[in-house]
Specification:
Blueprint: E1 8-12, E2 16-22, E3 25-33, H1 37-50, E4 56-63, E5 69-73, H2 83-92, E6 98-105, H3 112-129, E7 133-137, E8 139-147, H4 151-160, E9 164-169, E10 173-181, H5 185-193, E11 199-202
Antiparallel strand pairs: 1-7, 2-3, 3-6, 4-5, 4-6, 8-10, 8-11, 9-10
Helix pairs in contact: 2-3
């Protein structure tokens, strides 16, 4: 997966579902945004419970922008007929932080390798066609520690740079974890470091 602008990435906004049928078999594709492998595992477990009678729950996911965090599974289908076609559709649209699970109900007729590849690819493609694709900023996480007296100034900088507050403990001495858009990281860090009593560390 190539990403010419590593300050941003493309993903989907919310879950979408689509279905493809071939010779009695039903292929139901669920595409959903994730930020970690745990997000994926939770949703896949739910889908396996919802579709307990399905014969296969094949999937692929990709996380992050370095191209190294991905997985695919044929879940009992012939090797290379499900997971790879699903991942191929994700990559053809340049998406990341996304998972797709395709649930198959067997219709009694064997589709063969080409038929399976086509079915999983098509079901995935249908699900992505109904998804809202969005451009999102790459975020870098930092931990801030500072005196409560400068909280208003800290919040002004966070708002100005469209940072995301992950968690905060606001007492006499405040602890905050924030995600800073990579595109404005240096300027944001410079402004935060200029504040009296501020301690910064990357997470």
């Amino acid at each position: 997966m190539t990403n010419p602008d590593n300050n941003f990435y493309q993903s989907i906004e919310e879950e979408s579902v689509a279905e493809f049928k071939d010779r009695g078999s039903r292929f139901i594709a669920y595409a959903f945004p994730i930020s970690s492998a745990d997000d994926f595992k939770k949703r896949r477990t739910q889908l396996k419970e919802e579709h307990a009678k399905a014969v296969h729950h094949c999937f692929a996911y990709r996380i992050g922008i370095d191209g190294n965090n991905f997985r695919s599974s044929d879940d009992g289908e012939p090797s290379g007929t499900a997971g790879k076609p699903i991942l191929g559709q994700i990559d053809s649209k340049g998406l990341t932080n996304i998972a797709i699970v395709v649930v198959r109900y067997f219709g009694g007729t064997l589709l063969g390798v080409p038929g399976l590849i086509n079915a999983y690819k098509t079901a995935t493609s249908f699900a992505l066609q109904t998804s809202s694709i969005v451009r999102k900023p790459v975020l870098v996480n930092y931990r801030l520690q500072f005196d409560y007296m400068i909280l208003n100034e800290v919040m002004r900088i966070i708002k100005r740079h469209e940072c995301v507050v992950i968690r905060q403990d606001l007492q006499l001495f405040c602890l905050m974890e924030i995600a800073i858009p990579k595109s404005g990281l240096e300027l944001c860090l410079l402004q935060l470091r200029n504040l009296k009593s501020m301690e910064l560390s990357a997470i």
